[in-house]
């Protein structure tokens, strides 16, 4: 931590640490009757209030203390979005321990590595993940017990685990007279591992202070814009960068919260949206693709859904236009990363921009947007010099701020900062109004004859074709130009389009030399554990692909 000089005249305000427990206490005291609705793994719909959640969180915190959990100890969760997982968010961090959320879609070997690296003491898990737990348990040397998030009636009659505990029994055996402890706001609160780095996953260790500041900022009107007037359904998983902070920012403002559990298909989501009158949601593009397909195939509309934040990967303009113009849903394009807690930018229009013609507004909305207060950013060249904000010059994107990591957990990877700035690994432009647009990951950018080609722009154009369901672009070796773009396409069911038609579709939309040299049609693109397309897998798959040489 940097040391700052003390002023000769200090302020005379109360000193109260920014702690996560303050959020659930506030939600209980001032929004106690607001609902939390969950589609459970058991299959039914569960309802209770913030007051109920606060009570059970205190009971869980007391149970963990009785199990020997101390400040700084790590407790893992492998669970879907639901009320029990929310209780763990507050019980673990609120007691001074550290919640380590784990993505169940990872390989068991990766999960076991992270459990051991974090030195998790207990693992809380949804009951449909029992096979994963039984597979990793023999390899988890620090874990004292596994807690299944269910009642006694759903506990297995027999299990390979000799240290399996029942969550509801732990809750029932603990009183709610637990008092949230007060401690330094810079204490660690939660731990998320990112697979976006080289080698083993690396941990981003958040603090109570960073989490509270992120929650304040993300709730602002030009951030995620959540309020007590909303009903919020986080589609983004609670194991994916803490569901973009929504389990904190939603209780902070007292909004009704709806959890989808494991049912993330279009039909299940649509039914929950309508049943609970959801107004706001957040998720990655692949989720909205499934929901929109279901709605279109069944000629449905949304009665309450008015706003969504889309991030994780670039939102195709065709999807954004469908949501905006066909269904009247405001789309906020956002960007961030695990190392940023995760929100960095959100794209909303100023008064001046809102008065622009529709095409001009759409062009701005397709960008990743403006920083929210607390984040600073810049683009630099390979020589480290800052580049101009002209909306055209590409550069490596760097960020800094109070919810941006300074180093990885256990100092994995050494010193990651560059003169106090965190290198994101993204390539971007920034325009004169401060709106940032990602053009590529630095590892994905195509350099053809020494010039950059934006794969995201090529993908967006392809996905605006009525026959294209998904598209991804990678660089393939070329004898003259070093690399040239190969477009890999998944066609919509029943649709037909030829290579020649798709290549011709680019005419007049980009510089001629950007046009993909070839197109490969596939049944599906490789999708990673967080819903992103795995371009490293694609590059391996097509490493021997021969481009047509003109």
User: What spatial order of strands do you see in the largest sheet?
Assistant: 2-1-11-10-12-13-14-15-16
CATH class of the largest domain: Alpha Beta
Beta-strand residue percentage = 15-25%
- By secondary-structure content and strand pairing, the structural class works out as alpha/beta
Largest sheet entry: 9 strands, mixed
Mean pLDDT: 94
Number of folding domains? 2
As residue ranges, the low-confidence spans are none
- Percent range of helical residues: 25-40%
- Oligomer classification: single chain
Shape: globular
* CATH H-level homologous superfamily name of the largest domain: ANL, N-terminal domain
Distance between the termini: 58 Å
Rg from C-alpha positions?
A: 24 Å
Number of strands: 25
Short description:
With 550 residues, the protein is an alpha/beta fold. The chain contains 17 helices and 25 strands.
How would you describe the overall organization of this protein?
With 550 residues, the chain is α/β, with parallel strands linked by helices. The chain has two domains: 21-430, 3-Layer(aba) Sandwich (Rossmann fold); 448-541, ANL, C-terminal domain (GMP Synthetase, Chain A, domain 3). The chain is 28% helix and 24% strand. It has 17 helices and 25 strands. The strands form five sheets. Strands 2-1-11-10-12-13-14-15-16 form a nine-stranded mixed beta sheet, sandwiched between helices. A hairpin with a 5-residue loop joins β19 (422-430) and β20 (436-441). α1 packs parallel to α9 (246-253) and α2 crosses α3. The protein is globular, with a radius of gyration of 24 Å. The termini are far apart. The model has no long low-confidence stretch (mean pLDDT 94).
